[in-house]
């Protein structure tokens, strides 16, 4: 039996009944082939229309996500920097407990340098952490300005915050970098006899090196080798042992008046300096086992300034927090004066 019955004239006896509409097939706004065959086309107004997303909306959504992530990341970086500075301060406190009240200039210089580095690092990290959390909270508010103006303002704040992160990290890196040094090598011919210094009462003989330049705040690491040779045979004596000796540092203009122990010496002013070596094996080089002998002195000197990076760290410790404050102040003013 045919699924549909018609009159003899070919008309549909069920045309007065409502027909079920089909949405199968056909592009948007056009009736499907089955609807066209049966004459039941779908009215155009019944087809939903999807609104396209403008490219500008996508570009504005991307900075919105970025500006939410950057302040939070900056805040956590600031906390890590703060922890690093706190560790430096803790190490200084531990040294002070162990040493008591240090009196050597070199120890004081080292502790002061570490104290300044730890304080600058802690300060920069604390400001970065506080500013990062403040900016993150402030940028969670819905924008109240025009889209182009809001994006421009946010980009400026984000750039200032990113620059402050880089500056703060540079402060931390400078505190762990090895200090640049200058090495000076001395051969036996670079030392000559020196009369006994006026402020040293030790017996024995003295040798003074050729001069070298040192910057203010420099400290020295001197490695001295002493050999005693027999004047008659040229053989090394005393089993190659140097015997008792001490190394001093002194101004080149007055080596006899200003020698100080090299291991604790800190250069007071820029200028030329010398090494003074005390040979204490014998009271004199003409009596006892030192008679008919010649001491040969060699040395390797390493001079460096522990405070080399401190000026740069001071500048970074001020510039980094300053950039954070500028970024936070700009965001605060934008939120305060923005139209409702």
Strand runs, count: 9
Based on CA atoms alone, the radius of gyration comes out at 42 Å
Number of separate helices: 5
- In whole angstroms, the N-to-C terminal distance is 73 Å
Binned strand content: 15-25%
Main sheet properties: 6 strands, antiparallel
Percent in helix:
40-55%
From the helix content, strand content and strand pairing, which structural class follows?
alpha+beta
Number of domains: 2
Give the overall form: rod-shaped
Note the run of SSEs as H and E. HHHHEEEEEEEEEH
Low-confidence spans:
22-26, 145-150
Mean pLDDT: 79
Describe the SSE topology:
Elements: H1 33-38, H2 55-99, H3 105-138, H4 147-176, E1 181-186, E2 191-194, E3 205-209, E4 212-214, E5 219-230, E6 245-251, E7 260-261, E8 271-279, E9 293-304, H5 310-337
Antiparallel strand pairs: 1-9, 2-3, 3-8, 4-8, 5-9, 6-7, 6-8
Helix pairs in contact: 2-3, 2-4, 3-4, 3-5, 4-5
Name the features.
single chain, alpha+beta, Jelly Rolls
Model description:
With 340 residues, the protein is of the alpha+beta class. It has two domains: 61-179 and 313-337; 182-304, Jelly Rolls. 42% of the residues lie in helices and 18% in strands. It has five helices and nine strands. The chain has helices at residues 33-38, 55-99, 105-138, 147-176, 310-337; strands spanning 181-186, 191-194, 205-209, 212-214, 219-230, 245-251, 260-261, 271-279, 293-304. The strands form two sheets. Strands 2, 3, 4, 6, 7 and 8 form a six-stranded antiparallel beta sheet that branches. A three-stranded antiparallel beta sheet has the order 1-9-5, with no helix packed on it. Strand 6 and strand 7 (260-261) form a beta hairpin. Helix 4 runs antiparallel to helix 5 (310-337). It is rod-shaped, with a radius of gyration of 42 Å. The chain starts with 32 loop residues before the first helix and ends with a helix. The model is unreliable at 22-26 and 145-150 (pLDDT under 50).
